[in-house]
Specification:
376 residues, alpha+beta, five-stranded antiparallel sheet, 15 helices, 9 strands, globular
Length: 376
């Protein structure tokens, strides 16, 4: 276990010595209410992974590593964990996962969507492998497994110290299981294999579960929030997707388990640092919602969660501005904040993501065991 934590910490150190992507985003996420005050993004991701990962397939070294947590585990759990990781190894052999991620990913939302495919397939096949080891009067309760995965993912996110980080890790399992299980049961492996030809690149498209390959429910933004405050320069950008809004609405939008995130249609977030030094940061986040009701609910959630932010509503888009120096916000609003995609800063090369190690997901993060096996 200590070796795994050391490996993760070394990746954070390597990032700090390189392009420092983690340090760039830590204050931005804190300003937006996506990271607790004073928390380091790197330490948070390390702690989240170290506490939940059971095993992982390493896309660089091409091996499977099992984490010894010093506690007893049973045959069924061990079967699912190892089968899950062998599926990832086969995915890598078939689709070259690193290249697959480079081609179709690149943002938080698209990376979560790709993980939904790879993790959903791995859960399904590992459960199918487990089914071959059951007694003749036992079988997998697929509906119960899917319902239990969603229920537990929402519970895990709600109880997490850092809900956004946990949502990014947990949702691909539940969503992938729910959307791929019907394909698996109707068409077998070929139904899932076709998803790799033109994969969904937004969690929204997995959530809606409709359309043909290449179709998307993501709507174009009116513009991107690229105009910097005076004395600042843009350094990185991202699209955070539904998982971020799930965390934002957690305490204020309670009429659905998605807490308003299912009304997300697109977003663009840009991080700026002061030209005088890296310690002062600012962030702008433009979010498109499905309608004005959803937009106003989200604005209220931001105001209650982070009252120091500046919120501007326009049609069905919302602009959020934050800065470590709040004195710059009023002048920043006066500048205007509407650019094009070509105005976005070049995305920082993320050495941490490039290794594939901090993007590792737990092999079996959700307690769906009570729902997954039934007796005939």
């Amino acid at each position: 276990m200590a070796g795994f934590e050391t490996e993760l910490a070394a990746l954070v150190t390597a990032d700090a010595e390189g392009d420092n992507t983690i340090a760039t985003w830590s204050p931005a996420f804190e300003l937006l209410g996506l990271l607790s005050e004073g928390q380091s993004l790197g330490e948070t991701v390390v702690n989240d992974s170290a506490s939940s990962v059971l095993a992982y397939y390493h896309t660089v070294d091409k091996n499977i590593r099992v984490i010894d947590r010093g506690r007893m585990s049973d045959h069924q759990d061990n079967t699912m964990v190892l089968a899950h990781e062998f599926v990832h190894a086969l995915q890598d052999e078939d689709s070259q996962l690193r290249e697959f991620g480079d081609q179709w990913g690149g943002t938080t939302d698209s990376d979560v969507a790709l993980s939904t495919l790879t993790e959903g397939e791995a859960i399904l096949i590992s459960a199918a492998v487990l089914e071959t080891t059951l007694q003749p009067n036992q079988y997998i309760n697929w509906d119960g497994m899917t319902d239990g995965a969603f229920e537990n993912s929402f519970s895990v996110i709600a109880d997490a110290d850092e809900p956004f980080i946990t949502a990014v890790s947990a949702q691909p399992y539940a969503m992938g299981l729910a959307r791929l299980a019907p394909l698996w049961l109707s068409d077998g492996p070929s139904g899932i294999a076709r998803q790799y030809d033109q994969p969904k690149t937004s969690l929204l498209d997995w959530y809606r579960g409709e359309g043909q390959p290449g179709d998307t429910n993501v709507q174009p933004l009116d513009c991107h929030p690229t105009a910097p405050p005076v004395g600042y320069s843009a350094v990185d950008h991202d699209t955070l997707g539904m998982t971020a809004l799930l965390a934002i609405g957690l305490d204020t939008i309670a009429d659905s388990p998605w807490h308003g995130a299912d009304d997300w249609r697109n977003d663009s977030v840009v991080v700026f640092t002061s030209d005088d030094g890296p310690n002062a940061a600012a962030v702008s986040w433009r979010i498109r919602m499905s309608d004005t009701v959803a937009l106003e609910r989200l604005a209220t959630a931001f105001e209650q969660r982070s009252p120091e932010l500046r919120i501007v509503l326009s049609d069905i888009e919302l602009l959020v501005l934050g800065a470590t120096d709040p004195a710059i916000l009023d002048a920043w609003l006066a500048v205007g904040n509407c650019g094009t995609a070509s105005d976005l800063p070049e995305a920082a090369h993320d050495d941490v993501n490039d290794t594939g190690a901090l993007r590792i997901r737990p092999a079996a993060p959700l307690n769906v065991r009570s729902a997954r096996i039934r007796f005939r």
